[in-house]
Write a sequence for this structure.
């Protein structure tokens, strides 16, 4: 099993009611697996999109990117900087 | 790079100034309340700060590789920014104007696509909206 620190921002943080949650995932796993598990297990997270933008350890990644024990996975609402 | 304080164009220009750089481009993005925006009084900006700092450094690195002689400075506001105030400022200085315009344009376009920053519009009628530039804003209720 791997321990993932999952971070939520902006509207997603409001939907989940938290900015951060720990999640145990069976490895090997991808970001998509983490999103699926989060939507199933974390209260409020079922309202998140099935295919959100995501980052692992501060870098944008695709949903098929692998995750490792100790990774910080962030689910990002549509970006609106500038 | 991220700041809750107002953006100073003079400070940005001073950061990039150098004797050999003869063209400087300054871009300011300001909070807009256009005719189609129904009374925006301000925008609350938030960010995934650690990632935003890292992402800006990647963007600046890319710009410096493409236009090696340029100097570039960027500030992005966080927190509440009132209408007409700048939410982002970018200064790019280069030996000649073509590189200055190109580098400045590159940085703002990449920031728009890649920076993990979000904005919540505050409207005169008391409503609050998360902005999705790709779609319709999501109404989240009264302020």
């Amino acid at each position: 099993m791997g321990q993932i620190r999952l971070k939520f921002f902006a509207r997603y943080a409001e939907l989940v009611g938290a900015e951060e949650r720990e999640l145990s995932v069976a490895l090997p796993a991808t970001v998509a697996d983490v999103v699926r598990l989060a939507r199933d297990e974390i209260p409020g997270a079922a309202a998140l999109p099935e295919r959100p933008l995501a980052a692992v350890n501060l870098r944008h990644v695709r949903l098929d990117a692998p995750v490792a024990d100790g990774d910080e996975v962030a689910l990002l609402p549509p970006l609106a900087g500038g | 790079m991220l700041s809750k304080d107002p953006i100073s164009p003079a400070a940005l220009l001073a950061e990039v100034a150098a004797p050999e750089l003869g063209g400087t481009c300054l871009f300011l993005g300001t909070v807009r309340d256009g005719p189609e925006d129904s009374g925006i009084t301000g925008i609350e900006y938030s960010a995934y700060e650690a990632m935003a700092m890292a992402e800006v450094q990647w963007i600046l690195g890319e710009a410096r590789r493409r236009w090696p002689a340029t100097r570039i400075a960027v500030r992005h506001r966080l927190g509440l920014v009132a209408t007409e105030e700048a939410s982002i400022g970018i200064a790019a200085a280069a030996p000649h104007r073509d590189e200055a315009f190109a580098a400045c344009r590159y940085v703002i376009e990449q920031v728009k696509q890649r920076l993990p920053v979000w904005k919540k519009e505050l409207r005169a009628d008391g409503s609050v909206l998360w902005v999705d530039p790709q779609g319709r804003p999501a109404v989240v209720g009264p302020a």
